[in-house]
Structure formats: C-alpha cells, structure tokens
Amino acid sequence: MIRWIIRPYQRRFRSRRSIIFPIVIFMLTTILLYTRVEYYTLTTNYINSSSLSSKITYDTQSTSINFICELKNDTIRAINQAPSDYCKEKIKNISCQIDSTPNFFPTSLPRFCPIRKGNFGDIIGCISNDDNSTYGTNKLQVFNTDIMCIDHCLKLSVSFAGNV
After folding, report:
1. Domain ranges, residue 81
2. Where are the transmembrane segments (predicted)?
3. pLDDT at residue 31, as a whole number
4. What percent of the chain has pLDDT over 70?
C-alpha cells in the first residue's frame, strides 16, 4: 500500500509534465477566441436604441450616391423591430432618402375614389381617429374645396377631413 502512494513521486519527469501542454493549448485557444470576439464586436454596427442618442450618423449608398444622414428615434425603433438585415437596410436607406430629398413626397396624392357631388357646408379642419382631437379648428381655416381639405389632412397624416 505504501508503494502505491510513493510511486507517483518516483515517476520520470517527462510523464509528470504531460499535463502542462494541454493547459497551455487551452489558454492560447481561449485568448485567441477572446480577441476574435472583441474584434468582431468592435467592427460591427450594433443598433441599440436604449444606449444611443437621439440621432446616429450613417454612411449609406443609394443609387451610387454616397451621403451621410442622421437617423431619428422612430427610425431606430423601426430598424430594431425589422426581422431581417435586408429590411433593416431598406428602412435605413429610405429614411436617409426622405431626409436628403426635399421633394420626396408629392404635393398632392392621387385619389381614385369618387367624391359625392353636392355642397355639405364649409370645411373646417381635420379630425384624428387616435385621440379624437381636431386639427385646424383653432385657426378656423375654411377651405374652398373638398380637395384642399383632404390634401391638408393628408399632409398632417390625419384620418378624417371634417365638414359642417
């Protein structure tokens, strides 16, 4: 029994140092992987709306024109909710195009629905569906035609054009 306890100490030096090589390989591999992960996280563009300021600057390419744009909080939220990288890139490019092009939206939108003929009173303003508030009633702006009122409400992104 005593021989069994004493025997590991009487082994040759070569067999006792065999554990050192795997430990060294493990440490080198760990260091290599850690540096690769750090490099990858520093070089990728990760968007997190809670840690970013209200505007971010990006370089984008749109129809072979390079320009810099600033993304707003709504755009950042939309990018974070997008399911794929293609959608995120598309949202970013369209947002930059809207900011860089002064006439991105047309002055009036085409209407394909017929408007009933007849006079229904003076058009006062626009009514929002979300909070039942009215736009334009404080100014009591009277539009000459239904089309002018509808165009005004479309520019305000309001659901309904109201009349008296």
Report:
1. 46-100
2. 20-37
3. 92
4. 41
Distance separating alpha carbons of residues 136 and 46, to the nearest angstrom: 42
Is 33 part of any domain?
yes
Range of lowest pLDDT (28-37, 47-56, 138-147): 47-56
In a domain, 59, yes or no: yes
- How far apart are alpha carbons 2 and 10 in whole angstroms? 13
Query: Cβ distance 137 to 125 under 8 Å?
Result: yes
Tell me, yes or no, whether 7 and 37 share the same domain. yes
Helices (H) then strands (E): counts for the chain: 6, 5
Both structure tokens of 2: 């005593």
69 and 28 belong to one structural domain: no
36 and 60 in a single domain? The answer is no
Confidence at residue 72, expressed as pLDDT on a 0 to 100 scale: 81
Residues 51 and 84 grouped into a single domain: yes
pTM of the model: 0.31
What's the burial of 120, exposed, middle or buried (CB within 10 Å: 0-12/13-18/19+)? exposed
